[in-house]
Design goal:
The structure is a single chain. By secondary structure, the protein is an alpha+beta fold. The chain has one domain. The chain has 3 helices and 10 strands. Strands 1, 2, 3, 4 and 5 form a 5-stranded antiparallel sheet that branches. Strand 3 and strand 4 form a beta hairpin. The longest helix has 15 residues. It is globular.
């Protein structure tokens, strides 16, 4: 399968901090719809919020197809999600929600700011955690949002992975 340009779709980027680092949650969309993007991101974050330490959203921006220039737009959601400060040990940990489009392309959403890491399998099934179940459901709820790089709606897996960022692993192992 030939690679596609990272700018093959419209992309919304929500910048946030977990108290230590700045991260960005990137969501692909089929059309520029700022109100719809705000709604989709807010609903997803609200669903997974009970599993998060405090993360503070501070900017939403959008990039057009073929562009790598993100232009700021209005963020209408809450300024923070989650509860309590994140333990420093969780700094490099993230949730990743994965799916696959009908065109065979992988879709992935990363989110940093986990409040706890307590799953020995490093995978949380929707049957194990109602908040993960709600978050996975939200990924498929908003038509035209949370798309794959090919612009198609993915079928999201019924779990989320818990992982440690590779940059952090390299630094620890060095």
């Amino acid at each position: 399968m030939a690679p596609l340009s990272p700018s093959a779709t419209i992309r919304y980027k929500l910048s946030y901090t977990n108290g230590y680092d700045t991260h960005a949650l990137v969501m692909r969309a089929s059309a520029v719809n700022n109100a719809g993007a705000n709604s989709a991101l807010q609903d997803f974050l609200a669903a997974i919020e009970p599993n998060l330490s405090i993360i503070s959203a501070f900017e939403l921006s959008v990039a057009a197809v073929g562009s790598n220039l993100f232009n700021p737009i209005s963020w209408s959601g809450p300024s923070s999600y989650g509860d309590g400060p994140m333990p420093v040990i969780n700094r490099p940990a993230s949730y990743s929600f994965v799916g696959r489009t009908p065109g065979g392309r992988k879709a992935r959403i990363f989110l940093y700011g986990l409040s706890t890491i307590n799953d020995g399998s490093w995978r949380i099934l929707t049957s194990e955690d109602s908040d993960v179940s709600a978050a996975v459901a939200e990924l498929g709820t908003h038509s035209g949002f949370f798309l794959g790089i090919d612009g198609l709606a993915p079928l999201w897996h019924s779990y989320c992975n818990v992982g440690i960022n590779d940059h952090w692993l390299k630094n620890v192992r060095a």
